[in-house]
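Notes from the pairing session

We agreed to fold both candidates in a single pass and log them together. This is the raw record for the first candidate, unedited. Please don't reformat it; downstream parsing expects exactly this layout.

Candidate A
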Amino acid sequence: MTLWMTGDPAADELLTNDPFALLIGMLLDQQVTMESAFAGPAKIAERMGGLDVHRIAEANPQEFAALCATPPAVHRFPGSMAGRIQAVAAAVVESYDGDVTRLWTDDDPDGATVLRRLKALPGFGEQKARIFVALLGKQYGVEPSGWREAAGAYGEDGARRSIADVTDPQSLSEVRATKKAAKAAAKTKG
C-alpha cells in the first residue's frame, strides 16, 4: 500500500509509513488544499530530523511555532496549527504512550469506538473524525466492524467526498469537484 495524497513521493511515503504523520495531515486539513495539509508532516519531519510524537509534544511551544512558520510554512496559520499539533501529540503520548495505532487497535474497537477516540483528540470534530475513519478503512487497511457506518457518507464505496477518496490526480480532481458543488449548493441554500 502506498498512499497518494500530496503528489510528492517523499511526503506520501511518510504518510504511508507513519500513522502519526497521517493523523497530523488530517489535523492540518482545513483552510488549505488537501495536498498542502498532508505535506505538512514531511516539512516538520525534515526540520526536526524525524517525526517523533514525544519530541513534538515536549518541544518548546515558541520554537515549534517558529519551525512551523519557517517558509514554506507547515500551514496557512502556522502559529495556531503548531499549538494544535502539539496538543494532539501530547494527547497521543498521554493516552496511548505515543502509539497512534492504539486509537484503532486497543481492545479491538469497533468503528464507533474509533470515531469516539478520534473525536476526543484536540482539533478533531465530528466531520474530521469521520473522514479519518474513512481514510483508515478505505486506504490504510484499518477496517474495524462498523467503520463505514462510523464514517457516515465518507465511508461510502465509490464516494468522492474527501481525502479518504484521493488515490491519484484524477480522484483528487473528482473530490475537488464534489466539494465545489457542495459549496455552491450551500450558498444557494443559505
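Candidate B (folded immediately after A)
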Amino acid sequence: MPSNAVHLPRRSITSAQLLTQLGLDHGLSVERCLRDTGLSPLQLAELHSEIEGNQELQLIRNLIEALPEQVDLGLQAGLRYQLTTYGIWGYALLSSQTFRQAAELGLRYLDLTFAFNHVTLREDANQAHLELDGSHLPAQVRDFLLLRDAVAVMVIQRELTGGKIPLSQVQLSMHTPPDTGRFIEQFGLLPEFASAQNRISFPRHFLDLPLPRANPHSAQLCELQCQTLLAKRQVRSGLAGQIRDRLLSTPGRLADMEVIASELNISSRTLRRRLEDQGSSFRQLQEEVRQALAEELLAIASLSQEEIAERLGYSEVSNFLHAFKRWKGLTPGQYRQMLG
C-alpha cells in the first residue's frame, strides 16, 4: 500500500467491484485494476465482504494512471452507483417519507456508503446546499472522488424522487474540463469550476417533496438495521475486530476457531481466553457475522433463501431458517415482507 495512505473506514467490496468493471469496460485487465491493492481477483468475486478504504483508493489511483485520457472518469464511475448498490442504506432512503428525511438519514449513516468526501446539508432562507469536502483526500484522487460522489448524489436523488430536481447552482473546485457537455447533462446546468468550495444547491422547498415509495414502518426497520450494521463496522479494534474482519472476508466459508488461531500464531485455547477477556466468544462472533450478512442479503430480492443459506455456509436451509428466527424472532420470509 502507498505510504501516503490516509485512515479511512472499512467498506463493502461492492464499490471495488464497480470500479474494476469500469476499468474492464475501458480495456484494462483485472490485474491492472487491482495492482498494489492487496486484493486478488478471487477476493473481488466475494459478495458482501469488506475491504479497507485505502485499498479502494489504490484501485482508483490505478484507473487514473491507466486511463489519463478519460478526464471525466469520476463522472462515469458515479453513474454506476444505483440505490440498490448500497444495500440496507439504500432501502432506508427509499422508504423515507420526504426528500429531507431521506437526506438526513443518508447523511447520518454516511459511513455505510462508498463516499470518501465528507457531505453536509445546509439550509438558508430559500436554498438547500449539499456540500462535499475532500480536503483530507490525496490530491491525485481528489477530483475523481469529487465527481464520483457528486454524480452518485444526483443518481440517488433521481431514483428517490422519480425525476430531476432543478438545481440552482453547482460549484466544483476542479479545473474546467475540455468538454463540459456531460457535466451539463448530469447537473442540468454548467457548473462553476475552480470554485473555493464544492456545493450542489437547489430550492429549499424540494426537501419537503414526498417520496413515491414512502413506508414509515419499513423506514424505521431499515434505520435500526443501519444502526446495527454501523456499530458492527465501527467495532474493528482488538482481537474480536480482527476475527470479525477475517470472517467477513470469506462469507460462505466461515473459518473455524482452529484455522483462525493458526493464522494468528496462537493456540485455540489462548484465542478462547483472550476473547473471553474482551467479553466475547468465537461462536458469538460467527453468529454476529452471519446475522449481519443475512440481513443484507435478504434485502436483495433476487436472492432465494436457499442461495442465502448457502452463502452463509449453512449445509441445510432449515438450519438457516431456525438461526434467523432465533436472531430476529421472525422467519426470513416475514422479515422480507417487513422490508416492503
